[in-house]
Amino acid sequence: MSDSAEKQTYIRFLVSNAAAGSVIGKGGSTITDFQSQSGARIQLSRNQEFFPGTTDRIIMISGTFDDVLKAMELVLGKLLSELHSEEGSDIEQPRTRVRLIVPNSSCGGIIGKGGSTIKSFIEDSQAGIKISPQDNNFYGFSDRLVTLTGILDEQMRAIELILSKLSEDSHYHQTMNTPFAYPVVAYNSMSYGPSAAVGKFQNNKEDHFDSITIGVSDSHIGLVVGRGGRNIMEISQVSGAKIKVSDRGDFMTGTTDRKVTISGPPRAINTAESMIMQKVAYAAEKAMD
């Protein structure tokens, strides 16, 4: 074991945007503290860099095997304590879920012949372990989510088993250098990409197109659009939906809300809408500070 304990490895998992803040801490204090306690490096994807199809950010922890586990326990412990303070219960440890990102090429090793490996991991750790089906909706996208359900100790044991399996896989290390590089560009090449004009949608699997209009208060629209339209372009790229904001003074009837029209396949609309609502919630929070 000793040689693999010295080898560099890494793990990636998802956190909600809100939870990311508590891991970072005021002025980065928490994340700095966790790094010095564990000896591992902890990186987060940027504010709007989400895992495709979700509005969750990615945390990557890298270092030696033991350091990575130590940091993982600190981060998950922190997320649990946030949960506790919200619910105020300390009777028993809650069962929570952690979603790890694992390259598709490494999933076979975790599953094992006829599912034997994953079964033994579940028995050993007592955690629920589920691997998402491969998602072909994202071109060039080769990662899957491994969801671990259980109390912290069970999750940590499952992580230890999975990570030691991954660390033996030579392909696994090659993905270490591009932790957050999801093919945002690829969305544009889909026929319903933000750059495609409506009406040009042919030969697409998802030929069902919708359009919805939501209201965003005039005071928050700036944050949704972003400097030079940067945010709205990003939301459009990530979701694959086309987004149009009404002109100044063009409001939803009877309100001072600007009209934001989102069109595309239902899934793209949902993603875009939740990303926009997240921006609006953030703007509202800032306004309250």
TrEMBL record:
SUPFAM superfamilies (UniProt xref): Eukaryotic type KH-domain (KH-domain type I)
Residue ranges occupied by any K Homology domain in the UniProt entry: 7-80, 94-167, 208-281
Protein keywords: Repeat, RNA-binding
RNA-binding found in the keyword field: yes
GO molecular function: RNA binding
Superkingdom of origin: Eukaryota
Any single Pfam family the record assigns to this protein: KH_1
Protein name in UniProt: RNA-binding protein Nova-2 isoform X1
